[in-house]
Amino acid sequence: MNTLFAETLKILRKEKGLTQLQLATKLFVNPSTIARWENGSRLPDASMITRLARVLETDIGTLLSAAAESSEAPNIIIVDDDNAILIDSLLVLEEVMPDATVTGFSRPQEAIDYAKMNRIDLAVLDIELGTSSGLALCHALLKINPCTNVVYLTAYPDYAVRAWDTEASGFMIKPLTPEGVRRQLKKLRYPFSMGVSGT
């Protein structure tokens, strides 16, 4: 049951003075779809949440946060411009969090575009990303959703001081290890529900 999203949607709809039928008409969906969202039996996808935010004149982050809290599967991204490290790190994250949706990106802009359409529970960011930096990417992701947990992954421990200035939740040295991930998951600013292997 997706109770938090259901209740949030119901409150926002009523605040706008809309019936389920009126909201369905504005979204071009069947009224039974709205009913399922509000009784917690279904969740809309990211594109529909964007439309809902526009119609209800609310911040998309409000709905994304409610949807994420309602979901049992956390959404994790990792960004690294070294494909070999990216692939290895994806495997580690999937091992530690088998129920999570883990997506990798080699370009910061791709991660930003994804974050605009999906709530990110945890972002693992390489600090050196070609001509860009994980520090700048962190700022961009937190601007989209201030409740995103950011953990830096780097081969250079000297970056730690600069990294803490970005309100990150943690800092890991490459290569990523299951033990390192488990330690960081206990220190997140915004904990989330997850299936964690080996704990």
Notes on the protein architecture:
There is one protein chain. The chain is about 50% helix and about 15% strand. The chain has about 200 residues and is an alpha/beta fold. The protein folds into 2 domains: about 5-70, lambda repressor-like DNA-binding domains (434 Repressor (Amino-terminal Domain), Orthogonal Bundle); about 75-185, Response regulator (Rossmann fold, 3-Layer(aba) Sandwich), CATH 3.40.50.2300. Strands 2-1-3-6-7 form a 5-stranded parallel beta sheet, sandwiched between helices. A two-stranded antiparallel sheet has the order 4-5. Helix 1 (about 5-15) packs antiparallel against helix 5 and helix 4 (about 45-55) crosses helix 5. The longest helix has 14 residues, at about 85-95.
Order of helices and strands: HHHHHEHEHEEEHEHEH
Please tally the β strands and state the result: 7
Number of helices: 10
Shape: elongated
* The top level CATH class name of the largest domain: Alpha Beta
Largest sheet properties: 5 strands, parallel
Given helix and strand content, the structural type is alpha/beta
Strand order, sheet with most strands: 2-1-3-6-7
Distance between the termini: 26 Å
- Total domains, how many? 2
CATH topology of the largest domain: Rossmann fold
CATH superfamily of the largest domain: Response regulator
Q: Give the rounded overall mean pLDDT.
A: 86
| CATH-derived architecture of the largest domain | 3-Layer(aba) Sandwich
Roughly how many Å is the radius of gyration?
18 Å
Report the portion of residues in β strands. Answer: 5-15%
Helix content: 40-55%
Stretches where pLDDT is under 50 for at least 5 consecutive residues are 195-199
